[in-house]
């Protein structure tokens, strides 16, 4: 699990969407409500939820990478069922929310899905840029290996005998390096 440093609402940076949602509690007591009102903040990578909009410490947060968002009318049986949505990730906790209105629930889902697409498209070029040199090294060594391997396979004559300390194969038409 990656650690996300808790931040006050004002310091979460690049806020894409924020507002009050009701979040379903994982464990609620017999007397406590199953749904608790939380100030929720979505930034470019993390979903934070706070007790209210003035809170300094989040009640919780999670990286939204690899999550998917969808409307989830099955979460409630009351008049607010069309206001529900959930965030799902295989192997991780599912987060369930109720928005103030069906339109607001759709907007949260749309924003999260848009962000996830954006994260995916941003990740690919970044990774390629970041990994450019190792890929080039691997490609060039692969092509050398492939060439020497193919040459070895196509040889009609038996393998050239090598000196004991020589670990390199001598290819036809090449002079062995003399030290």
Automatic annotation (TrEMBL):
Residues 14-117 form the PH domain. Coiled coil: none annotated. It is found in: Cell membrane; Cytoplasm; Nucleus. Its main location: membrane. It holds the Pfam family PH. Residues 141-152 have a biased composition (Low complexity). The keyword Nucleus applies. Keywords: Cell membrane, Cytoplasm, Membrane, Nucleus, Phosphoprotein. Residues 127-163 are annotated as: Disordered. Residues 127-140 have a biased composition (Acidic residues). GO terms for cellular component: cytoplasm; nucleus; plasma membrane. This is SKAP1 protein. The lineage of its organism: Eukaryota, Metazoa, Chordata, Craniata, Vertebrata.
